[in-house]
Amino acid sequence: METTVKRVLIVGSGTIGTQVAALFALRGFDTVMHDVSKERLEHAAGAIAGMYNELAAGGHIDAEAAAAGLERLHQEEDLGRAAVGVDLVSESVPEDIALKRAVFAQLNEVCDPDTVFTTNTSDLVPSMLADATGRPELFAAFHFHSPMRGGDVVDIMGHPGTSPAVLVLLQELAGELGQAPIVLRREHPGYVFNNLLNALTRAALELAVDDVASPETVDMAWKRVMHMPVGPFGILDMVGLDTALRIARLGAEQLQDNGLQRIVDYLAQYVEEGRLGVQSGRGFYEYA
């Protein structure tokens, strides 16, 4: 496989897509962001400028690096124009399998035939999307963990038809991005860390749902015994209670899990009140 990644296309300008674009541009890649909404693209560009300013203020990068990153960043509403000359696509649209399949089908029509496709999905596995890409051998999951907020690992998960050369390429790319590659031997929903985190947060939520202890008490136990700065409910606030609700609802429906359904009902109360966590200023805790 001769592909060299120089120009990347980030599809979806939500929270994680914006951070992925910021990382690629900062690390020297010509980066195109695509979204169907001009407003979302403009918001993402402003958010990235803010991230770079924070890094510069903290002494993590200099002003020249921040300016160069912004120069390498481009926004494009038209998918055909966005796809011109890209070597790799990173998809970060909402976790809707039909939507993702439709997006990859469109990408297959406008991208060069040797462009590598990746998904940043948190919940799905690549084989659910591979045939829709039109290039299953060039497709894998390349899943980031808030890379502009301290996350420095990226999950790499192929499907049975993924070319081994693509997996090697993604491992090398992870290194160029300053991310440690977590390579899965086979498909598994939730990768490695998310499975560990889901087990912790489910146990915490069950204690609250069963009225064994309050979220504050659960967090205090975890933080003090494990000497951690944040507990499972604080983590859920950071993830977003809307995201946590979506994941729990998906699991409850797919597994017919009554325990997860009780968690769905519990989280739904917070989401319906607009208490989404850090992003809305309040969740299990209040944020200034």
Secondary-structure topology with pairs:
Elements: E1 7-11, H1 15-26, E2 30-34, H2 38-57, H3 63-71, E3 73-76, H4 79-82, E4 88-91, H5 97-110, E5 116-119, E6 139-144, E7 153-157, H6 164-176, E8 180-183, H7 193-209, H8 215-226, H9 232-239, H10 241-255, H11 258-272
Parallel strand pairs: 1-2, 1-4, 2-3, 4-5, 5-6, 7-8
Antiparallel strand pairs: 6-7
Protein name: 3-hydroxyacyl-CoA dehydrogenase
Site (Important for catalytic activity): 143
Domain 3-hydroxyacyl-CoA dehydrogenase NAD binding: 8-185
Please describe what this structure looks like.
- By secondary structure, the protein is α/β, with parallel strands linked by helices.
- 48% of the residues lie in helices and 13% in strands.
- Strands 3-2-1-4-5-6-7-8 form an eight-stranded mixed beta sheet.
- Strand 6 and strand 7 (153-157) form a beta hairpin.
- Helix 1 crosses helix 3 (63-71) and helix 7 (193-209) packs across helix 9.
- The longest helix is centred in the first third of the chain and has 20 residues, at 38-57.
- The radius of gyration is 19 Å and the shape is globular.
- It starts with 6 loop residues before the first strand and ends in a 16-residue tail after the last helix.
- It comes from Oceanidesulfovibrio marinus.
- This is 3-hydroxyacyl-CoA dehydrogenase.
- GO terms for molecular function: NAD+ binding; oxidoreductase activity, acting on the CH-OH group of donors, NAD or NADP as acceptor.
